[in-house]
Amino acid sequence: MLRSINKYKLYLYFFFFIFLSSTFNFQLFKNFKDKFSLKQINIEGVSDDEKKVIEVELNDLKNFNIFKLSEDKVIDKLNKFNFLENIYVKKIAPSSININLTRTHILGKTLLNGEEFYIGKNGKYINSNQISLKKKIPIVFGEFNINEFLNLYEILKNYQIKTLSIDKYFYFKNKRWDLVFSDGVILKLPTKNYEDSIKIYKKLLINNILKNIKVIDLRIKNQIILTKNNE
C-alpha cells in the first residue's frame, strides 16, 4: 500500500512538472514572439500628410515577426504610391523598421478620362489625390505615351532649355509637339528628329534672333519660319 501511495505521488509530481514546464515554455515562447514583433515603423523622406497615408497602408504589418517580414512585402505595399521613386527598407531588431523614401520629380499634369494626374519623372501617372503640390507646373494636352513626353523632357534638359518657363505642351495625333512658353512664344516641333529642331532653337536663342518673335515653326526640315508678334 505504501508503494502505491509513493507511486501515486510520483505520477502527481511528474504531472505538475510537465504542466509547469509547458506553462513556462509557452510563456517563454510568447515573450519571444512579442519581443520580435514589429511595433515601430519609421518613415523619412516625405511630407507629414504623405507619411500619414503611408502609415495607414502599412499598419496591418504591425505585430509581424520581424525576421519573417520580407523587404519585398513592404515594398509591394509602397509601390501603390506612384509618387515614390526610391524605396529603402531596413529592419532594426528587435521590433522596428526604418523606411527611407525618395519622391519623384513632378514634370507636369494632364487629364486621363476626365481625371487630373501628375506626370512623374519615374515614368508613372500619379493621381492628384495622392500628393499636394503647390508649385506651378506645365499642363500637357493630348493623348500621349508617357515615355514620349519623358524623352522630349530629357532632350530639352540636355540642351539646357528652361523647362520651368514652359506653360503648356500640346501633343498631336501625328506624333509631334507644340511648346507654349510663359512669355507666350510658341515652338512648333516636327514629327521626326525633333532633337535636331531643339538644337536649332537653342542656337536661335544664343544668337538673340528671337526678339519680338511669337512663333518658331520648325516643322519642315531645313526651314525656319518665324512669326513676329504683330503679324
Can you walk me through this structure?
The protein has 231 residues and is an alpha/beta fold. 34% of the residues lie in helices and 28% in strands. It has helices at residues 2-35, 48-58, 71-78, 146-158, 194-206, and strands spanning 40-44, 84-92, 96-103, 106-112, 115-120, 125-127, 139-141, 166-171, 177-181, 186-188, 213-217, 225-228. Strands 7-8-9-10-11-12 form a six-stranded mixed β-sheet, with no helix packed on it. A hairpin with a 3-residue loop joins β2 (84-92) and β3. It is elongated. Residues 1-5 and 24-30 have low confidence and may be disordered.
Question: Number of helix segments?
Answer: 5
- By helix and strand content, what is the structural category? alpha/beta
Q: Overall pLDDT, averaged?
A: 86
Kindly estimate the percentage of residues that lie in beta strands according to DSSP.
25-35%
Radius of gyration: 32 Å
Major β-sheet profile:
6 strands, mixed
Label the overall shape: elongated
What topology emerges from the helices and strands here?
Blueprint: H1 2-35, E1 40-44, H2 48-58, H3 71-78, E2 84-92, E3 96-103, E4 106-112, E5 115-120, E6 125-127, E7 139-141, H4 146-158, E8 166-171, E9 177-181, E10 186-188, H5 194-206, E11 213-217, E12 225-228
Parallel strand pairs: 1-3, 7-8, 10-11
Antiparallel strand pairs: 2-3, 4-5, 5-6, 8-9, 9-10, 11-12
Entry summary:
By secondary structure, the protein is α/β, with parallel strands linked by helices.
